[in-house]
Specification:
The protein has 91 residues and is mostly helical. The chain has one domain. Helix 1 packs antiparallel against helix 2.
Amino acid sequence: MTQDIILDMVREGLYTIIITAAPPLIMGLTVGLIVSIFQAATSIQEQTMAFIPKILAVLLSLLLFGPFMITSLSQFFQYMVSNLPYFVQPR
């Protein structure tokens, strides 16, 4: 296995992780920011108030982007399996 093959495999893996994790993280971040602005504007300092909207936003994003995420992960798995002979070449 050459260095180019390893770098390509790691790059594809990192890209897949970022693309797969981005939708729930962005939704949670957005809802958390909105709740924080609302709390600052109304002087409500309840720490647990942000958890339920964030959890609901992440679950909603998993429902909306779930098929895309599964497709992305299955394409990476197919890439890894189809290139398996190149990854385990004997010396």
